[in-house]
Design goal:
alpha/beta, TIM Barrel, 2 domains, seven-stranded parallel β-sheet, two-stranded antiparallel ribbon
Length: 276
Amino acid sequence: MPASAPEKLAKAAARGADELVIDLEDAVAPAAKAAARAAALEALATLEWGAASLAVRVNARGTPWCEDDLAALAGAGGPLRSVVLPKVEAADDVAFAARLLDRAPSLRVQALIETPAGVLRAAEIAGASPRLEALIVGYADLGAALGRSAAGAANAALWDPLREQVLLAARAHGLQAIDGPWLGLAPDAAFAAAARRARDQGYDGKWAIHPAQVAPLNELFAPDATEVARARAVIAALAGAARDGGQGAVALDGQMLDEPVRLAALRVLAAAGEAP
């Protein structure tokens, strides 16, 4: 939601998203940056945000506004949980943000990977700071930088190699991998196919840029009842084997269960918002 659009901020908590991102970057005109920052701070302090995780996307490093954005958010307190840092191209970009957030030790950082340099250095970026919790693919800037046509940008399959590189970097460092937004507004068949592709590839979620996209994404990325029940059964079977002095592997419904299967089950329960 643009920080400069108070009517959208006021409605955000009712949209049902897992995370809400207040935007100080692309959705705000240069002349309105300072006012948008002040509006974001006021919204953080005064609005009811519900159970959603709250983030603010700041302006990119090297712009006239980035340092002021980070300094202001470091003192914001309240419900703010993380800062989304755009156009991250190197580990030092994350370290730079972490230094400016030093007086807010609990504030996390999410890195938007949306330039060719960022993709090539995704593994380096993913290990840059213990504050980092997620890598996010940014398609608009990345597509423009690559010279990708509108048709190419809308072809989800063409993004597979880039998504895979970001996913591997995230998983190697224990981070979430979040797919960037579909650039159309409607939750149509093309949108659903692209989101399903990212889910099947292993991504934890996907950004929405229109309220109509939130419910379909929640349904797509949330484990269904069968998956949750299976995950519970896996955890219970392995726990029972451990209590009985087993060797860490056990069969359930014809499938051999071991540590990788347990970790997959834990990921399902985490996505469903359940403790193991």
